[in-house]
């Protein structure tokens, strides 16, 4: 979230799309309802009429996977009706930049496309720059190659009629939503976008979110109270584990993973440290060397020296341009080339797409280590339905883990708030915390490599491993301090006002502004620097003061970065630092300093041409990107059909589905588009009583009793056509698998008119399996879903795939 | 015995859960045994700690009460001081109690499944840590790639994969990350991408 949960109450209009917050984030509704009490309007856009729709002021249905069309129509509406917030767009976005002559767009394809590699050459999307490298601009927006004109041109194709033909949403409903939401494009109104897996679970997921970002920028809704783009997310610490970068493409603090072509630290830093010629840009990522070297010092301690590149060579290098996501690893495992695997508290045999392929891939492993608090379908895959254990070689180590209240540590919520949990009791039996397991395993590996030697032992032997207490148990306080970072020698540095500050060796670094690139500081994650300082554990704070009256609660726990509660908050003010809306001032320049929330940097507002800085400090040139050349599938979002789709064609262009997605070609990756055998669109969804694949919640009587088994939601119209009654047992099948369940015939879901044809959609939760409740049949909905992912993130397309439904 | 309303709810919850689920084939003996060990008259000595809900990432505050005599958790409820949930909890949050030792379905032993076996065997931690480390080392040493096809030094291992987790603490994420990178793994992913 750019903003935070309580801030939802500050909004005038909440667009909840790609999320059923009332079902999946129930407590968020406390703040949505508070906004409503204050007069805000709530819009729910969803293929199903959900619990969220039920409390909304306005509901519109759309076919799964057509969100870019829906939102592209809104961009067109905003520009055509002149609803955008001009001062914001002029000053804070790249609307005035001139795009280079090589950029082009034709029939669904952007310039630079290579059909063989399915990749774009994004250099054709670059901006025109002058001799010094400063982007050329036209503040009058008259130049036909300026971003605003290209934006207008691109989305002029998204007329209400065309959008309706794609989404199935009637034109008058589209216009109603556009009118309601674009009313926030003024200085005194705030509009908030709330999304979750309903947007990420598409082959165009990242670009759906970008479309919403364009809308929020046009309406001046980023940086303000009650605004923002708010990813509700769906796991207790998915924010923290993403910040901590347990992901192939990034290392802690969103630093990029080293690639094979970067053979030295210098080459790595050269490629990943952005430069700018824009005089007023803060270009925050220019600090990349400080964060990287401090991280290497956390990795290798004293063994990381200037002479050995701080141990950079010991980090693994991923091949340039190659992805190593779950979808990739599952495919490689399926082909038998992965021998061992760790899975920590995750249940891919229930929660990952194309379950039949997942399970087959698991049988190819020699060993699997799995840690969890309950058994699940992944740890027990070898005796699942249809499998003969006597034919499966995989050794499985199932490790009993402590649950959340049996250990101490922090977790970060969607609002980037890191909160400390205390230990209430010891874990039962022989269960221990995941941290203890990792600590013990690394200690053993170090022992083995020391004794026996082995391939490239240096990173293991030299890994700084001081994470235990006096009794040899994993120490979360010690680890949190390492994450925050230390001064490694006595140092004198200047604070932002230019005054000298002295630090002693062993002091905790008070904030990332003091991190150094010379090896004199360590820091496990620069974003968490300031979370645990000499003043104590900031994440455990319980202060309830609310000086702005906006619910920021700066003394409650701790928020990254540097306890800033609203990101890009200087954009909530005009260029002279005065709030667009003084009634809801997140920050304000008082002539000598910012007051309110922790500002996005200490510099004066941008109207101070000498010292002032532009507000979007994470972009090299300081402005937000309406035109985004950093995406792999185009600088403007474009509607493409889901990989599996009902018509086999795209009403918008000759390009049916996203041209930049990776296609897996194993015999188990079948697809059925425009196939009469699989005529119905299906999407998966969550339930309030279960969590993800249900691997925790199905073991809990209170919850299982409330939602005991798998069902499919079917419209009365489709049920009538198929002769299915409410409560009948039915089979739902895709080309990849089938599953049996109960039919729930409900007007919550209804047919769509798409390009003159009736298209039916059905919906299923995905929280069931076979281990508990114990069954001979597998009730995993993911037996149906396709193993294909978004072009940018490779998040799988769990929504908008094709199925058939029949009575059993 | 003076039982308050809250205590009554705890007791009926512990027993009620058992009765409701007997029809689903779960073994209810341990639930009753757990309840029997709680000394209701000693509950006023409960220790209170705060926690955060382990589910959806709203990050609601919890208050956990632990019986100081038996060391057992006797209640978990919403934290009224918490600025986000102000004491409220959803169905899952209100059931966090059932993720604790009060739930007989919890894993409490190290379990091992041998190749081609049709059953789990109980093992010790020392055995498991040693055997896992041996396998990691053998697989890593056999599959270690020092240079790629272009001759670039890559020091990586493509034969071991890693998944998870967004369901562990930040500090656990931190050490896990150090481990997987030190081993040279590149197939690294977790729930953020599903």
Secondary-structure map:
The complex is a heterodimer of chains A (808) and B (194).
Chain A: E1 13-17, H1 21-24, H2 29-37, E2 41-45, H3 51-55, E3 58-60, H4 67-80, H5 86-92, E4 105-106, E5 109-110, E6 113-114, E7 119-120, H6 147-155, H7 160-167, H8 171-182, E8 191-195, H9 197-200, H10 205-218, E9 229-231, H11 238-243, E10 250-251, E11 255-256, H12 265-272, H13 288-300, H14 326-334, E12 340-344, H15 348-351, H16 355-363, E13 367-372, E14 395-400, E15 409-412, E16 417-421, H17 434-452, H18 458-461, H19 476-484, E17 491-494, E18 500-503, E19 532-533, E20 536-537, E21 558-559, E22 587-589, E23 594-596, E24 680-685, H20 701-706, E25 711-714, H21 716-722, E26 729-734, E27 737-745, E28 752-754, E29 757-759, E30 761-765, E31 799-807
Parallel strand pairs in A: 1-2, 1-8, 2-3, 8-9, 12-13, 13-14, 24-30, 25-27
Antiparallel strand pairs in A: 4-5, 6-7, 10-11, 15-16, 16-21, 17-18, 19-20, 22-23, 24-31, 26-27, 26-31, 28-29
Helix pairs in contact in A: 4-7, 4-8, 4-10, 14-16
Chain B: H1 5-21, H2 29-37, E1 47-52, E2 61-66, E3 73-78, E4 110-113, E5 121-123, H3 125-143, E6 144-147, E7 153-163, H4 170-183, E8 185-189
Parallel strand pairs in B: 7-8
Antiparallel strand pairs in B: 1-2, 2-3, 4-5, 6-7
Helix pairs in contact in B: 1-2
Sheet of most strands of chain A? 6 strands, mixed
Distance, first to last CA of chain A: 44 Å
Main β-sheet description of chain B: 3 strands, antiparallel
Q: Kindly state the mean pLDDT of chain A as a whole number?
A: 97
Give the proportion of residues in helices of chain A: 10-25%
Task: Name the pair of protein chains with the most residues at their interface, and give those residue counts.
Answer: A-B, 169 and 125 residues
- Cα radius of gyration of chain A in angstroms: 27 Å
